[in-house]
Amino acid sequence: MEKLELLYEGKAKKIYRTNKKEQFLVEYKDDATAFNGEKKGTIVGKGALNNQMSAIFFQMLSEKGVENHFVERISPIEQIVQKVKIIPLEVVVRNIAAGSLAKRLGLAEGTALRHPVVEFYYKDDELGDPLINDSHISVLQLATPEQLQQMELVSLKVNEILSEYLLTRKVLLVDFKLEFGLTEDGKLLLADEISPDTCRFWDADSKEKLDKDRFRRDLGHVEEAYQEMLKRLGGEVLV
Ligand code: C5P
């Protein structure tokens, strides 16, 4: 596998072209941002930790029948993924009120939700990634109704699989964000990453935060929280 030119640099990852037409190389960075890029910092070792955690989650999901873009982890901070065109929507699934939902609905953080809540956000930095509904998505032609329905179904299945697994590791899956993409022949695939950058993980007993909220809210021990999550997933912390 040859790493060719940089195609895209995001806040937490870089995407490179490879000599294989159907595959991209993803490099996970230590850079961390929050509040739509207003807060910037570094979480030492995050790239390697998230590369490993995303690989673990994507592999687990593949085994449970959730097709996704992950192909292979090839170095501490790099993985090969199937090439897709990302749909500019973030699908957020929530089990417990936290973050923007707690604020929007006036719920105390930690309130258990009667059933999972699925939300769509429009991936647009200039607009600040607004919450949008089916009607907005249709008018902006971001996805077809069928794609939207499939994204929602897959997201709820991911929620079931990961919530159940994480509980065995004494972790509550509070909420998470997924992204989907389309392959050249139009197939919808789960893509991007699944890591403490994109999920809220709480220790099941103490409710201690084991995710990026430690960075967002200046709670300290950010690196330790990411390392702790990897350990709970059975990964090896290479520090
Ligand atoms: O901030 P909010 O409560 O809406 O975030 C919900 C979930 O989506 C959290 O797990 C957060 O980490 C994730 N998220 C994300 N990328 C964003 C916004 C939210 O990964 N741009």
Describe the overall structure.
By secondary structure, the chain is α+β, with helices and mostly antiparallel strands. The chain has helices spanning 46-63, 99-105, 134-139, 145-168, 213-216, 222-232, and strands at residues 3-9, 13-18, 23-28, 31-34, 39-42, 70-75, 78-82, 85-86, 89-96, 112-122, 131-132, 171-182, 188-191, 199-203. It folds into 2 domains: 3-82, Phosphorylase Kinase, domain 1 (2-Layer Sandwich); 85-220, D-amino Acid Aminotransferase, Chain A, domain 1 (2-Layer Sandwich), CATH 3.30.470.20. Helix content is 29%, strand content 34%. The strands form 3 sheets. Strands 8, 9, 10, 11, 12, 13 and 14 form a 7-stranded antiparallel sheet that branches. α1 (46-63) runs parallel beside α6. The protein is globular and about 50 Å long. Cytidine-5'-monophosphate binds next to β9, α2, β12 and β14.
Q: Say which molecules are bound, naming each kind only once.
A: cytidine-5'-monophosphate
User: What class, by secondary structure content?
Assistant: alpha+beta
| Distance between the first and last residues' Cα | 26 Å
Number of strands: 14
The number of domains:
2
CATH topology of the largest domain: D-amino Acid Aminotransferase, Chain A, domain 1
Shape, please?
A: globular
Average residue-wise pLDDT = 97
What is the C-alpha radius of gyration, as a whole number of Å? 17 Å
Count of helical stretches: 6
Identify the CATH class of the largest domain.
Answer: Alpha Beta
State the major sheet.
7 strands, antiparallel
Strand residue content? 25-35%
CATH architecture field of the largest domain:
2-Layer Sandwich
What's the SSE pattern?
A: EEEEEHEEEEHEEHHEEEHH
